[in-house]
Amino acid sequence: MADLNQRLSQISPTKLALLAQEMRTKAKLVAIEPIAVIGLGCRFPGNCATPAAFWNLLKQGQDAITEIPADRWDVDAYYHADPKAPGKSVSRYGGFIQHPADFDARFFNIPPKEAISLDPQQRLLLEVSWEALENAGCVPAELLGSQTGVFVGISTNDYFQRLVARHHADIDAYLGTGYAHSVAAGRLSYLLGFHGPSLAVDTSCSSSLVAVHLACQSLRNGESDLALAGGVNVILTPENSIALSKAQMLAPDGRCKTFDAAANGYVRAEGCGMVVLKRLSDAMVDGDTILALIRGTAVNQDGQSSGLTAPNGQAQQAVIRQALSRGGSAPKQISYVEAHGTGTLLGDPIELGALGAVLTPDRSQTEPLFVGSVKTNIGHLEAAAGIAGLVKVILALQHQQIPPHLHLKQPNPHIAWDDYAIKIPTELIPWPATESRRLAGVSSFGFSGTNAHIIVEETPQDLQRISASTGTEVETQDQNTTWHLLTLSAKTESALLATADRYRQHLTDNPNINVSDMCYTTQTGRSHFEHRLGLVVESAQDMQDKLSATIVGEETKGLIKGHTSEYHHAGVGFVFAGQAAPNINMGRQLYQTQPTFRSAFDQCVEIVSTREQSAPLEQLFSGDQSVSPLPHHPLVLFALEFALSQLWQSWGVEPALVIGYDVGEYVAACVAGIFPLEAGLRLVAERSRLMQTQRISDDAPSPWEGTTPIDFAKIVQEVTYDTPTIPFISAVTGQIISPEVIAGPTYWLSPRLREQPQLLQGVATAVEQGVTTFLGIGPGPILSNLEQHYLQTKKLTSSGTNDASPHLPPKVNWLSGLYEGQNEDQQLMQTLAELYVLGAKIDWSRIAQSNGQAYRKVNLPTYPFQRQRYWIDTDCKTESISENRQVKVEKNTQWATDSDVLRQFKNKPANERYDFLEAYLLTLITDLLGGDITPQTPFDTLRVDSLMLVEITTQLAIDLNLEVSAKTIIESGSVAALTKRLMKSL
């Protein structure tokens, strides 16, 4: 920046002015770039927990309004038909979501105590935002540290009112962050590690649409590269309803009769909606599925009007014109408007008049402007009303249908219907195509006077099938030519089974789904948690069958299920075969379907052909069964193994170490970077020549007897060696060879290379390095034979009859190479599935790019949250939060009172005190933090904040009469270490 300022200071004012003018022109182009909607999430009345469920409600014209549920308040106690009755509301209806007390706190690593104080609005935002990101195919872990913005419309704080009005004793430090609107956005950014703008917006009813407007601005000016925007509203107390009733805003019959002569107010509703936004240029490059485009947005204010909460028609016209102008759209291009439409005799005529004045001039009655309002279906979501309308419009554009507008029996006589070419659709109709693309407007007006309008455009045809793997247009794929891997995961076993069930149902509902795209989406568009399932499938029916088997607990080929924490995964060891004889066509299928394998094999052929020895390599894929089985030829084995290793590495499966014997040791050396490929092939070719000259049998471990032949020694000494980039275990010693020894001719001329390989010792050495997963690189049963030897030796060692055997771990994972007569793509996917379930690092994007096919992310089921109830009941005597915690400790440890803890500790024998104290601390900390915690769990892997530390130190002072600082707890690092520290003070 300093250098730029220095250069600018040398430019004349005139040139600076001309340069600034040019840049302003370019900036205007950036300012009107369309914003792509790439993901949706919602929780709306009528049990609409997904966009698909919401669309189903809309297209069927369903009314989601119900009587106020008993878990909110006693409707009879606060209802009265007389609007003048003090402390009463004229409405006993609303649009409600189910189970607002339930939340998957464990999923978001929120301790139970904090979850109780967490406003259900914040809980909804977390879950719906996660679902929106999954719908967009975004993996939250990959957004860590990114310029992702969060813009949330939120207005009410009923949970706070409900809690403090009845339970002052339960107010704790978590309540402050639990109800704060600023934290509603900030918590989402904190938990997911976003670094973009994060803010809460309160403009009353227009809050969520204003939030979308601000998100679009942030994207266009470069503050954000991705944005989550929307709003939330949850109704838990009667006070706001009473106030709105007194203002004569609520319809006694609980229905928004928008544009109807009987319009007499709105019905309150709750819910949450979020959209994921990205600049269109970025979405195209990233290959995102684009649901719709936001062309223009605008926000203004009523200013002085007939009243603080009264609508202003002129301001509404102005905000619509601004949105049109910023989106480069003409009024006549707008074919549908999602109206604010609260259903009042005053507001409806003003809004329709504004729409007519701006959008219907020069429009004929044969091509009318269609207008509707989602409030007739689900009620007025207040702070989340605008996002509900936007989600409706996006879904309608996708389906090219306009849903019916409800409760219109007799048009409002105060609206000049004959003056405007406007039609209210009362049944599901096709969305008429226009000369250009379908465009819609969405309005949202706050009773604070803040108005918002957004222009939305359908996704252009040329963007509807953009590949997420290549960023190019997707061609129709033949799904039956290869095998696929479906990867599912969850944070708990029950959630994993629920995920499998959701996918099974999704296949039932979508029998023609593209299996390749489906698997690609699970691999690259979902988080990968500890509980994992890998399904190797060849069709949608095969997938459905294996999902069903998973649910009922049946084992079947191609179904791999496990928990990554069961394995200490420090990487994969590559084991290269040494003397296996490939059969004709072994590797041919991979050669045809995997470009990386083909390129690596061809590279070997090209190098060998310069020495006129390529015939055996070319013969491998000749298909000539007359020479099957193929006579043993080391060059064929080398090329096959090298190509396989390159394929695995191109998929992100990098070896933590390598070990090989005979020919395989030379391949391992190339992979480890000890000598180049050309040198490895030359050495193996010379060994092969010597074997043929001296007529060594195929099963002999050494190519010659006595001293190393002079010709071979000369080649070994001519090779250029380098320090290995991957640890190299010698098959001779079974130990990791130092770089100084392996990177030179001495090792490769050693007579010990002719000795029996010590592979089992090599496995033990790898285990000492933390590696317990071994991948066979090459044909035949190299690892199955090694596994049998391992199990036999382990049995002898455990019985004490073979004390000289190497130390063997309790669990070693053996992953096979290629076997004759089996589908090679299937074998590869099977091994990949096993690696996935073991927790190996895999680069799914590189896998998608490696085979030359183009994939796109598709809509799939989202995470099945495993919710529990976190609530302070108000209709009966409720224990305080601190009492709840103590009750749990009492149940788990049978400590009656706080003073009993120290007394029981002192009464324990000295050799039992440590275990007693550790159990107490584990109970205390687990209860505060939640989740599965062991004495060895590092504190830095848990979300321990200052408030939790205060809770822990306070309780330790009460229970143990110890003044323990927060610093001591942090420095201890785990329950086990803290126990040792506190034992010294007790």
Shape: globular
Beta-strand percentage range? 5-15%
**Would you tell me which CATH topology of the largest domain applies?**
Peroxisomal Thiolase, Chain A, domain 1
The biggest beta sheet reads:
11 strands, mixed
Helix content: 40-55%
Under the CATH scheme, the architecture of the largest domain is: 3-Layer(aba) Sandwich
Number of domains: 4
Q: Structural class of the secondary structure composition?
A: alpha/beta
Spatial separation of the terminal alpha carbons: 59 Å
- Report the uncertain regions: 476-480, 795-802, 875-898
CATH superfamily of the largest domain: Thiolase/Chalcone synthase
Output mean pLDDT.
Answer: 86
Total strand segments: 25
Gyration radius from CA atoms, angstroms? 34 Å
CATH class identity of the largest domain: Alpha Beta
Strand arrangement, major sheet: 6-5-7-8-1-9-16-15-10-11-13
The assembly state of the depicted protein chains is: single chain
Count of DSSP H/I helices: 38
